[in-house]
Amino acid sequence: MLIDTHLHLVDRTRLSYPWLEQAPALNADWPYETYAEAAKRLGITGALHMEVDVAPTDIARENTWIGDLMVKDGSLLRGAISSARPEDDGFDAFLDTLDLTIVKGVRRVLHVVSDDLSRSETFRANIRKLGDRGLPFDICMLARQLDIATELVDACEGTEFVLDHCGVPDIAGGSYKEWADAISRLAKRPHVNAKISGITAYATPDWTLDTLRPYVEHVIESFGWDRVVWGSDSPVCTLNASLDRWVKATHALTSGASEDERALLFAFNAARIWDIAL
Questions:
Q1: Residue 278: pLDDT band by 50, 70, 90 thresholds?
Q2: What pTM value is reported for the model?
Q3: CB 3.0-4.6 Å disulfide test: which of 30, 39, 106, 178 passes with 44?
């Protein structure tokens, strides 16, 4: 089993994605059918859709769309991680609208806003409410913001967190120690998990397994096999690789692990964190 915990689907005829105009390499439609054809061939047995930072007025439409795809015969989709605005006073009303048969977690992209956004009491109080509803929060921050992430999780001990993309290390720039130290600090918090997802996008196009290995191994060593999950970050992984190449790299990078350890990373931890059926 291989659960993809970080799939982005894009339909520009259906939803508005303001940021795509500044990302020409990704500014296209990325349909479920194309992903599913490749994913099934690669052994991916289920997927969670990760919100794609649509316009705020389209958040509910994005979740409904994923719900419609989930009920199709043979669908790989097991749920959606919804976009949200925890900085808003109307967050309670937003949570009340969520269909929890579809929505399994929440994310607010935090590297495109002020560093202080997640430090506000409104934001933190609303993230604490996710814990009350059993909804994990995905942390989408850059490596330089990892200590801010630690501040957030310390303020919300009753909420489960998932750190996206290994904390976005600057692999292309060769930066390691500051990122690694911050990962080690964050990993001491038992209610935080880490997602090994699409880190080829942060390397140079000529990356090799040895390029990625120190980052993957440090995350696993820091969090332990029972707090790591896998994700493709498709289609972002296509910037320096492909879905096929990233899946193969993942298998190669974890080839020395036991069968039980790989099962935790590939499926069982995801089932626990997001309460999804395998």
A1: confident
A2: 0.96
A3: 39
